[in-house]
Specification:
The chain is of the alpha/beta class and 307 residues long. 49% of the residues lie in helices and 12% in strands. Bound molecules: sulfopyruvate and magnesium ion.
């Protein structure tokens, strides 16, 4: 089944499903092999892995370059964090078209102004005009080459401190514009405002949350509230940063690999994650078979010609 269809089924399922962050091919593969049914290609994590800020410092085509590796590495659906859509309605629909061509399952865009800043940085988040953002959603939906491709509208009103009624007004406008789901974001350390939003919202329409800051709330509460998708948005990149810092420190201080070996992935783990066995099996199948005698003759030829 096509990935976009799979993501659509997860969105529309009566159960709550979970998306794991990926920022490159290897994090995507690890998430897939753990059992996650879909991925969140996080703007924060992709930017961080490339050493730049989550403030549109990456161009849309640089994001596409990373996604090409992720798409090749996994078969589960990928929901891409598209920030504000990389420009106006025209840039957003072009970006969505490229994502469809790549086989990406969905795009999430947020109602802020370009260049955006990560939602957890500072207190000056500027919201996009509702009509302008609704036009962006409509333009993507009108032009997406794959009808299953999912377009998620991310409401940043609570992040910007604009209040619950503004968040609900925006969510309703984006639903009317054709969004397939609403992502309601919050930076509070409790889930109070998220749960209030869910109580005011029609539960038949899919809602997505990112509980990075209100992680202490039991997942069961979100399931009871009828949340469709929960995004674990940045935990692979944060885990890898911590692991790399500890490993670097240890090797630097001890000038030895003795204690670090055993704490880190085996080389064989790498070879199996990237399926080196498949290559050696394919070599047997596709490379010409060289008999020992022939190989010796070739070696001799190379020796004589190189003298
Ligand atoms: C991301 O993962 O890049 C997100 C989620 O957009 S957040 O960092 O919470 O804004
Ligand atoms: Mg982001």
């Amino acid at each position: 089944m096509m990935q976009a269809k799979q993501l659509r089924l997860l969105l529309e399922s009566p159960e709550t499903n979970f998306l794991m962050e990926a920022h490159n091919a290897i994090s995507a593969k690890i998430a897939e092999s753990t059992g996650f049914k879909a991925l969140w290609a996080s703007g924060l994590s992709i930017s961080t892995a490339l050493g730049v800020r989550d403030s549109n410092e990456l161009s849309w085509s640089q994001v596409i370059d990373v996604l090409e590796y992720i798409v090749d590495a996994v078969s589960i659906p990928i929901l891409v964090d598209g920030d504000t859509g990389h420009g106006n309605f025209n840039n957003a629909r072009n970006f969505a078209k490229k994502l469809c061509q790549l086989g990406v399952a969905g795009l999430c865009i947020e109602d802020k102004t370009f260049p955006k800043m990560n939602s957890f940085v500072g207190n000056k988040q500027l919201l996009a005009d509702i009509d302008e953002f609704s036009g962006k959603i409509k333009a993507i939906k009108d032009h997406q080459p794959n009808s299953d491709f999912c377009v998620i509208a991310r409401v940043e009103a609570l992040i910007a401190g604009a209040g619950m009624s503004e968040a609900l007004r925006r969510a309703e406008a984006y639903r009317a514009a054709g969004a397939d789901a609403i992502l309601i974001h919050s930076k509070q350390s409790t889930a109070d405002e998220i749960l209030e939003f869910t109580r005011c919202w029609d539960t038949n329409y899919p809602l997505i949350i990112v509980p990075t800051k209100y992680y202490k709330t039991p997942t069961e509460d979100f399931i009871k509230a009828g949340i469709s998708l929960i995004i674990w948005a940045n935990h692979n990149i944060r885990a890898s940063i911590k692991a790399m810092e500890e490993t670097c420190k240890q090797i630097f201080n001890e000038r030895s690999l003795l204690r670090v070996e055993g704490e880190i992935a085996e080389l064989n783990d790498i070879f199996s994650l990237i399926d080196y066995d498949e290559l050696s099996m394919s070599e047997k199948k596709y490379l010409p078979k060289i008999s020992k005698g022939k190989a010796d003759v070739r070696k001799e030829k190379i020796c004589t010609t190189s003298h």
